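Worked example 3 (structure in, sequence out).
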C-alpha cells in the first residue's frame, strides 16, 4: 500500500486565515491536528508523503496497534483528522514565513507550497521528522528498514536469534551492540575504525561478542534479496543475516529557513535537530515543533503523544488570544456607547 494512498483531499486550500497549519503528516503532525480539530479549530495538514518509516513492515511497541503497517496507520490518522473537519493534503512546503501580525499583535504566517498554493495561519506546528544518512558502504542503503535496522525496540523481536552484525559509526554503537546482544547469541561488531577501548572489548568478550577491526568494503545481497553478509577489505566474507547501524539523523527543515527556528547538534556527531521547550514551544512566537524533528529518538507512540501535547498547547494559546481580542472588542464597544 503506498504511503500516500489517501493523503490528498479534493477541493481548494482555504483562502481565509486558518487557526493552524501543520507541516508534516506523520504520527506527531496528525495527532497534533487531531487535538486541534477536536477543539473546533480550523487546521490544515500538509504532508510530503515520504515518511521515514515507509520501508518498515510494521510499527512496533505501540500499544494496541503493534505490527500495523506504517501506511495503514497514517491512513487511519488522516481519516480521524478529517472526521473532525480537518484538512489533510499532499504537498511540499517551499517556504513558511512569519507575516505581519494582526492588529492586536496575534502572530500570522504564510505557507507556500511547491504547486503555488498558499495558506495563511495563526499558528504553525512543525512535525517534518528527520532523514537518515547512512555510512557510505556499497550495498547498505538498499536493505534499509528491512535487513539493515537501527533500533532494537523497533525491529529487535523480528530479528531475534539471527546472525546480526553491528556496523559501528561512533561511541553509541557500543551501547547499540549490547542491546542487540539481548536478542541473539550470534553477534559480530565491525569496529570500522571508530576505536574501541579495552573496557568495551572486555565487556564484549564477556558477552561473547566477536570484534572485527578490518574495514568493511561492501554489504552482500543473497539471491532472495536479503542481506547475505559483508565483504571485508582483505576479501574475507563474514556471513550475516541482519545488520544494525546507527544513522546520522538530520531534521527536515527544507522550506522552514525563514522562520529562524534554532537548531542544535546532537552529541558524537549523530546529527542535528530543532530545539524545543515545554510542549514543543520554540523561540518563535506562534510556532511549535513535535516528533523526530526535535526528538530524534522518539518512537511512533511518543511522537504521537508529543504532537497531541503540542496541539493542546496551541489551542490553549489560541483561546488566550481569542479572549484578549474579545475583551478589547468589548472595551471598544463600551467606549463607543459611552461617547454616544
Amino acid at each position: 500500500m503506498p504511503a500516500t494512498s489517501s493523503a490528498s483531499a479534493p477541493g481548494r486550500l482555504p483562502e481565509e486565515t486558518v487557526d493552524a497549519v501543520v507541516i508534516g503528516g506523520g504520527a506527531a503532525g496528525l495527532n497534533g491536528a487531531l487535538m486541534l480539530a477536536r477543539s473546533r479549530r480550523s487546521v490544515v495538514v500538509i504532508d510530503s508523503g515520504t515518511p521515514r518509516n515507509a520501508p518498515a513492515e510494521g510499527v512496533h511497541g505501540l500499544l494496541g496497534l503493534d505490527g500495523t503497517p506504517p501506511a495503514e496507520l497514517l491512513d487511519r490518522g488522516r481519516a480521524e483528522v478529517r472526521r473532525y473537519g480537518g484538512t489533510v493534503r499532499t504537498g511540499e512546503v517551499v517556504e513558511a514565513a512569519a507575516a505581519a501580525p494582526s492588529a492586536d499583535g496575534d502572530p500570522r504566517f504564510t505557507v507556500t507550497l511547491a504547486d503555488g498554493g498558499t495558506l495563511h495561519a495563526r499558528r504553525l506546528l512543525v512535525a517534518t521528522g528527520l532523514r537518515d544518512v547512512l555510512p557510505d558502504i556499497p550495498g547498505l542503503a538498499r536493505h534499509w528498514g528491512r535487513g539493515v535496522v537501527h533500533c532494537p525496540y523497533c525491529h529487535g523481536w523480528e530479528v531475534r536469534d539471527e546472525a546480526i552484525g553491528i556496523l559501528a559509526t561512533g561511541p553509541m554503537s557500543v551501547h547499540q551492540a549490547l542491546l542487540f546482544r539481548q536478542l541473539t547469541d550470534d553477534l559480530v561488531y565491525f569496529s570500522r575504525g571508530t576505536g574501541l577501548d579495552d573496557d568495551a572489548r572486555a565487556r564484549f568478550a564477556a558477552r561473547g561478542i566477536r570484534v572485527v577491526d578490518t574495514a568493511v568494503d561492501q554489504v552482500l545481497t543473497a539471491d532472495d534479496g536479503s542481506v547475505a553478509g559483508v565483504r571485508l577489505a582483505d576479501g574475507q566474507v563474514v556471513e550475516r543475516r541482519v545488520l544494525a547501524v546507527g544513522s546520522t539523523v538530520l531534521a527536515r527543515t527544507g522550506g522552514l529557513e525563514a522562520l529562524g527556528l534554532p537548531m542544535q547538534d546532537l552529541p558524537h556527531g549523530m546529527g542535528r535537530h530543532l530545539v524545543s521547550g515545554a510542549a514543543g514551544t520554540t523561540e518563535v512566537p506562534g510556532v511549535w515543533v513535535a516528533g523526530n524533528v526535535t526528538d530524534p529518538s522518539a518512537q511512533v507512540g511518543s511522537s504521537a503523544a508529543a504532537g497531541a501535547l503540542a496541539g493542546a498547547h496551541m489551542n490553549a494559546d489560541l483561546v488566550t488570544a481569542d479572549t484578549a481580542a474579545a475583551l478589547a472588542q468589548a472595551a471598544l464597544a463600551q467606549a463607543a456607547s459611552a461617547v454616544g
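Notes: Residues 18-131+248-335 form a domain with the FAD/NAD(P)-binding domain fold (CATH 3.50.50.60). The CA atoms of residues 167 and 245 lie 5 Å apart.
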